[in-house]
Amino acid sequence: MSDRFGDKPADQLGAHEIANWLRRHPRFLQQFPDLSLSLVVPREEGSAASLASYQLEVLRDKNRELSRRLHELFGNAQDNERLAVRTHQLTLALMRQDNAADTLRAMAASLAEDFNGDLVRLIVFKPYDGLSDNEWLQIIDESDPRLQPFRDALSDGEPLCGRLQPEKHVVLYGERAADVQSTALLPLPGSGLIAVGSRDPNRFFPGMGTLFLRMMGESLAVALRRYD
Question: Which CATH architecture has domain 98-225?
Fold first, then answer.
């Protein structure tokens, strides 16, 4: 509403003039729904009752939205709590191992069992006693041309989530590359790569939170340094 109605400033208008203006603009409250919440309306039959009903409906809409957001926040808090517990348990499991081979096995087992990974793959840059290439583990020298698609990821060390390029899928999953629709990739600069693949294209997606992924990757990198 402007500061003037015709030739009069708004602060000089009488109640009847305002009422007449509102009669000519019955949809005014649709433009300013918050105003309806501050109006004082007598609780009696008649036209005033419709405004009171409108106020009530606006409050109900706001309550429904607040309730929806509260349930969403509660769900996110529960998910984060479960992830925090699992990440802590993973870190303890890595600390309990006595050698690099068992440390890597513990990492792979935890990702598959506790974090619901359909396909877990680890790439390490150097061999460790007691381990050789198998379905979940590859030993690839850091200078190997096959790792060229991962150079940027290994440089910045940031986890990646989503659908990876086909050449990355081939290196990580080999003959099972076609089974994977989304991946969480954890680069470990100087140590290797961790990939958790899913058949669900929406399981891992760009923009999802990567805090716990980063913590898991850091835990493994620190655990492996004990055996360098």
Answer: 2-Layer Sandwich (3.30)
